[in-house]
Amino acid sequence: MIQATTNSNSLRCEWCAACGTETTMVKPEQAAVIAGVTVRVVNSWVESDLVHFLETSEGLLLVCVNSLGLIREMRQQSEQ
Ligand SMILES: [Zn+2]
Question: Contact at 8 Å (CB) between 45 and 71?
């Protein structure tokens, strides 16, 4: 599902404390595309601590792709 975007440089590898490893971190806009939801939903996940996220020194919010995968699985199970 993760398409190569024209702006692939925006994919960053960052340390995710929740995963305990380096993961791909994406902007909320990209996280929304990956998860198939709106940015508003991603923001609500961040506020509810449902996804892993970090704030860069530039004040940029980045969401852990690993945690998005977990949410996708949860959603698919609940839709069955
Ligand atoms: Zn994580």
Answer: yes
